[in-house]
Amino acid sequence: MEMKTNRLEIATTISNDPSSYKLCAVCGSIVDKTVTNCPDCYAYRFDVDASHVADAALDYAVKPQQTVSHFDLMPEGSEAMEQDEEA
Ligand SMILES: [Zn+2]
């Protein structure tokens, strides 16, 4: 296992372009705006306010990691997780 990307680098990327991301309303994960379900908790409600996303990105950079985020689990070309289709 290699460290993919530095957390600060991720946070900087997100805070420079917060409108491309959104926050999971349930677990607070920062996810790509194109996803329909949170990769961490499978919630489907999101906070799309760019200023909230930017704040969360900064928190992500400075706070110790308490949970595994989807950035750490990002599969490369594999769809290992099952998606429930109960919209
Ligand atoms: Zn979530």
Plain-language structure description:
The protein has 87 residues and is of the alpha+beta class. The chain is 31% helix and 10% strand. It is built from three helices and three strands, in the order αβββαα. It has helices spanning 7-16, 50-62, 70-73, and strands spanning 21-24, 30-32, 46-47. A hairpin with a 5-residue loop joins β1 (21-24) and β2. The longest helix is centred in the middle third of the chain and has 13 residues, at 50-62. The protein is globular, with a radius of gyration of 13 Å. The mean pLDDT is 81. Bound molecules: zinc ion (ZN).
Could you outline the blueprint of secondary structure elements for this entry?
Layout: H1 7-16, E1 21-24, E2 30-32, E3 46-47, H2 50-62, H3 70-73
Helix pairs in contact: 1-2
The structure holds zinc ion.
Order of strands in the sheet with most strands: 2-1-3
Question: Which term fits the overall shape?
Answer: globular
The secondary structure category is alpha+beta
Ions, cofactors and other ligands present here are:
zinc ion
Number of separate strands: 3
The overall average pLDDT, rounded, is 81
The count of helical stretches stands at 3
Strand % is 5-15%
What descriptive keywords fit this protein?
binds zinc ion; 31% helix; alpha+beta; single chain
In short:
The chain has one domain.
